[in-house]
Write a structure and sequence with these properties.
Mean pLDDT: 95
Order of helices and strands: EHHEHEHEHEHHEHEEHEHEHEEH
Number of strands: 12
Radius of gyration: 22 Å
Oligomer: single chain
Structural class: alpha/beta
CATH architecture of the largest domain: 3-Layer(aba) Sandwich
Length: 335
C-alpha cells in the first residue's frame, strides 16, 4: 500500500522504496518538479503501487527484483538505484521492457573511504577489544600501532579506492600500493606509490589489504583460499565493497588459524549476515570487526544519492539519455 501525500498539481510522481525514502527524506520532500511518495520495497507490492498510481519512475534500494517490477513500468520508465551496486536489478528484463536503469556513481566515495579508514584505524589501535573490556569493567590497556609508514594495498583503483588512497597517503602518511585488474595496464595515479596488476606482488609487504571491487559475476569469491594464502599473517583484510567477492568459509579458516591478523568487514555474502554453508561464524572470532553495510550511509552521501537519482529521472524526462548514469545503455537501441 502507498503512504501517499495527495497533491493536486502537475508534478510527476516518483515512488521511493521505504528505507531509501527514510535515508534522505528531506531531499525527497523538497525535490523540485516531482512528488516523491513512499512505497513498499516488496516487489509484488511495489508493482501494484506503480499500476495504482500510474507512475513511470521508481527509486529502489539493494533488494533483488526479478519480474513484476519490469512488467509494471511502462517503456521509457526509469528504475533509479539508490546507490552504486546494481546486482539486484535484472538489466536484461528491464531492457526487454524498454525501462531505463540508473545508479549513482561517485557520490558516495568519500563516505565509503572514510569508513574504510575508520576500520583500519580501529584495527591498528585495537579499539573494539579495548572498548569491550571497559564496558565489562576491565581496565586492559593494549599496545596499538601507528599507521604512518604502514603499507595499505588497495585492490580496485576506481573512485572509492582512489579516495582511500588520498586519505591514507595525505592524512596518515601510509605507503599506498594499488592492484588493478589482471592484464589491465597499471595506471599512474596520484597518492599511490605504485600500481601493479599482480595481486601476489601487491600484497607481499601489506599491513592492510582493502577491497574496492565491483560485484560482477567475474568477481564472485575472487578472494578465495588460494589468494588468501598470498596475504601475510600480519595483515588485516578490509572489505567495504561487496560481500560476494570473498569466499567467507575460506576467510573464516584463515582468521581462525591466524594466517591473517584480522578482518574488518562492512559487507557480506548474505545480508543481514548469516553463516555461509561450510563456513564458521565470523562473529565468533576475536580478530574480526563487523559493521552492517553502513559505508555509504551518511547524511551527506544519502542526500547526494537522492539528488543524483532524481537527476537521472529528470534527464530521462528531457530525453537527455547520454547524460544519465545508465547501467543498461543497450536499452537506447530499442527506442
Amino acid at each position: 500500500m502507498l503512504n501517499c501525500r495527495r497533491m493536486v498539481n502537475s508534478k510527476r510522481r516518483v515512488l521511493v522504496t521505504e528505507l531509501e525514502y527514510r535515508k534522505a527524506e528531506a531531499s525527497f520532500l523538497s525535490a523540485s518538479g516531482v512528488e516523491c511518495v513512499r512505497a513498499s520495497d516488496a516487489e509484488p507490492d511495489l508493482a501494484s503501487a506503480i499500476r495504482e498510481a500510474h507512475v513511470s519512475y521508481v527509486v529502489v534500494g539493494a533488494r533483488r527484483y526479478s519480474g513484476p517490477l519490469y512488467d509494471a513500468l511502462p517503456a521509457g520508465g526509469v528504475i533509479a538505484r539508490f546507490g552504486v551496486g546494481h546486482e539486484g536489478i535484472d538489466k536484461a528484463k528491464a531492457t526487454a521492457a524498454g525501462v531505463l536503469c540508473t545508479n549513482t556513481p561517485g557520490v558516495l566515495s568519500q563516505s565509503v573511504a572514510e569508513h574504510t579508514m575508520l576500520l583500519i584505524a580501529a584495527a591498528a589501535r585495537r579499539l573494539i577489544a579495548m572498548s569491550t573490556s571497559l564496558a565489562q569493567s576491565r581496565w586492559e590497556p593494549t599496545i596499538g600501532e601507528e599507521l604512518q609508514g604502514k603499507t595499505i594495498v588497495i585492490v580496485g583503483c576506481g573512485g572509492i579506492g582512489r579516495s582511500v588512497a588520498r586519505i591514507a597517503s595525505l592524512g596518515y602518511g601510509m605507503r599506498v600500493v594499488g592492484c588493478s585488474r589482471p592484464g589491465a595496464p597499471p595506471p599512474e595515479l596520484p597518492h599511490f606509490d605504485r600500481v601493479t596488476d599482480d595481486f601476489e606482488t601487491a600484497v607481499r609487504d601489506a599491513d592492510f589489504v582493502s577491497l574496492h571491487m565491483s560485484a560482477g559475476p567475474e568477481n564472485v569469491h575472487w578472494l578465495n583460499r588460494e589468494r588468501l594464502t598470498l596475504i601475510g599473517a600480519r595483515a588485516w583484510l578490509i572489505n567495504t565493497s561487496r560481500g560476494s567477492v570473498i569466499d567467507e568459509p575460506a576467510l573464516f579458516a584463515a582468521l581462525a588459524e591466524r594466517r591473517l591478523a584480522g578482518a574488518a568487514l562492512d559487507v557480506f555474502a548474505h545480508e543481514p549476515y548469516v553463516v555461509e554453508e561450510g563456513g564458521g561464524d565470523l562473529r565468533s572470532l576475536p580478530n574480526v570487526m563487523l559493521t552492517p553495510h553502513v559505508g555509504s550511509n551518511t547524511v551527506e552521501a544519502n542526500r547526494r544519492i537522492a539528488e543524483r537519482a532524481l537527476q537521472n529521472i529528470a534527464l530521462a524526462e528531457r530525453g537527455a539519455f547520454a547524460q544519465m548514469d545508465l547501467i543498461n545503455p543497450e536499452v537506447l537501441s530499442r527506442r
